[in-house]
From TrEMBL:
Enzyme class label: lyase
Predominant location category: cytoplasm
Protein name: Histidine ammonia-lyase
PTM remark: Contains an active site 4-methylidene-imidazol-5-one (MIO), which is formed autocatalytically by cyclization and dehydration of residues Cys-Ser-Gly.
E.C. designation(s): 4.3.1.3
Entry annotated with the keyword Lyase: yes
Length: 520
């Protein structure tokens, strides 16, 4: 476990903080400034709780039931009932890293001093994270409005010592047992605290941040495999000239073209597109690779901007404004609506699907003897006896088709809830869930292109061709990782999985950068 400390203050968190906690087990500490801010906001809540007039979230019911004023003796029960009733998720368990990101982001908002919870609530949540206790959260239950209610409620329930959680050993046990085993005292929730624990975009935001990190690596990997394919198809690198991309000044496009140019520097294979069957220009899947991947990069840049803004936000309803007149106030608002996050989650799914689609078209070109400029059919050893990579492309095509279905936006849907009080929702959680699936599919698609392109390059090298130093380094690393080269047919599934691991682990990018230096 990475013991890097993340000190959380009142002014948000960084993407690196979220990844460190979610994926690397970083230790979380609630800083003194955050404790002071929470204490000041709590004073506002307690002052309002003592007044006879109802205040939403403090002394009323919730949602469509907000019209009922709750007397002081029932308010602790109100908070418990809220959490228990909202912990209504169904379906498979959500991944551990997603739950940890969700918890940390909710803790970030608690620490902002805008929610009105006592410091002990935030400190107990930090203790859960540090103990490696991960609440059981289910796939279905969030509409992405009023926050990721059901997922967050399952986490809040564990804070109360109820429900189920996974311990650091991976075993699921009753939450009360796990808390006791780690010396953590369950929290008895008071006014507003149950609501503050469940009202945020934390699940969808956590998944967005992790997807952004993963896609950044995959966009670079896709530039590398596009370069491999261009070289294996004897294409021209002249389309990568920086002056061509400067006249259409999209930054992502220029970055992708520069990556491909670095990969192909010194190649003895590029520029021979006139030799065997004259081509005036390469096919779109080769020639337009920087334009497609670059548009995805720019979409990713926008998604990161939205994520950073959301990280700086304090998403809750109602929210405590300590600096207001008369010692502060509590105000209802709509900041919990997940539209900003939902949109970019959908945008990324679209960009990822198109990147997968163009990669598959390059793979198909490598395998088709009528378009591969001298390569054997399906890159087979003895075509007809051997099928080569024919069905690897089928698998890749199936993944592309799945990604196209996953690219259908979730955020254009809305389904009314809470007796029409919550009559427009974002579906951001659903957008995040499908994006996670799409990211994994994209890594597999890129792996199949890498598998085919490296085999094709090795066949070119056997025939006397000279790959670029960077592509030669990738080829050597792929073989060293146990991904085989040309030869008779063999059990292909394990080889494709080894290629996927090579891509997803970042080994492909590292192998290329050993020659090119840092790639964008």
């Amino acid at each position: 476990m990475n013991m890097h400390n993340v000190v959380i203050g009142p002014h948000g968190a960084t993407p690196e903080d979220v990844l460190a906690v979610a994926r690397a087990g970083a230790v979380v500490e609630v800083g003194p400034a955050a404790v002071a801010g929470m204490a000041a906001a709590r004073e506002v809540v307690e002052a309002l709780a003592a007044r006879p007039e109802p205040v939403y979230g403090v002394s009323t019911g919730f949602g469509a039931l907000a019209v009922r004023h709750i007397s002081p003796e029932l308010r602790a029960q109100l908070q418990r009932s809220l959490v228990r009733s909202h912990a209504a998720g169904m379906g498979p368990r959500v991944e551990r890293e997603v739950v940890r990101a969700l918890m940390f982001l909710r803790l970030k908002t608690l620490a902002s001093g805008r929610t009105g919870v006592r410091p002990v609530v935030a400190e107990t949540m930090a203790a859960l994270l540090n103990a490696g206790i991960t609440p059981v959260v289910h796939e279905y239950g969030s509409l992405g409005c009023s926050g990721d209610l059901a997922p967050l409620a399952h986490c809040a329930q564990v804070l109360m010592g109820e429900g189920e959680a996974e311990g650091p050993d991976g075993e699921v046990r009753p939450a009360g047992e796990l808390l006791a085993a780690h010396g953590i005292e369950p929290v008895e929730l008071r006014e507003k605290e149950g609501l503050a624990l469940i009202n945020g975009t934390d699940g969808m935001l956590g998944m967005l941040l992790m997807a952004c990190a993963d896609l950044a690596g995959l966009f670079t990997a896709a530039d590398i495999t596009a370069a491999l394919s261009l070289e294996a198809l004897l294409g021209t690198e002249r389309v990568l000239a920086p002056e061509l991309h400067a006249i259409r000044p999209h930054p992502g496009q220029a970055a992708s073209a520069a990556n491909m140019a670095k990969m192909l520097a010194g190649s003895g294979l590029t520029g021979h597109h006139q030799d065997d069957a004259p081509r005036v220009q390469d096919a779109y899947s080769i020639r337009c690779a920087p334009q497609v991947a670059g548009a995805g990069r720019d979409t990713l840049a926008h998604a990161r901007l939205v994520a950073e803004r959301e990280l700086a936000a304090a998403v809750d309803n109602p929210v405590v404004l300590v600096e207001g007149p008369g010692g502060g106030r509590v105000e209802s608002n709509g900041n919990f609506h997940g539209a900003p996050v939902g949109y970019v989650l959908d945008f990324l799914a679209i960009a990822a699907a198109d990147l997968g689609s163009i990669a598959e078209r390059r793979t198909d070109r490598l395998l088709d003897k009528n378009r591969s400029h001298g390569l054997p059919p399906f890159l087979a050893d003895d075509p007809g006896v051997d099928s080569g990579l024919m069905i690897a492309q089928y698998t890749q095509a199936a993944l592309v088709s799945e990604m196209k279905r996953l690219a259908v936006p979730a955020s254009v849907d809305s389904i009314p809830s809470s007796a029409m009080q919550e009559d427009h929702v974002s579906m951001g959680w659903s957008a995040a869930r499908k994006l996670r699936t799409a990211v994994d599919a994209l890594a597999r698609i890129i792996a199949v292109e890498m598998f085919a392109a490296t085999r094709a390059l090795e066949l070119r090298a056997i025939a006397g061709g000279r790959p670029a130093p960077a592509t030669a380094a990738v080829l050597a690393a792929v073989r060293e990782a146990g991904v085989p080269g040309p030869g008779r047919d063999r059990f292909l599934s394990p080889d494709l999985e080894a290629a996927h691991v090579f891509v997803r682990s970042g080994a492909l990018v590292r192998a290329a950068e050993g020659v090119t230096g840092p790639l964008a």
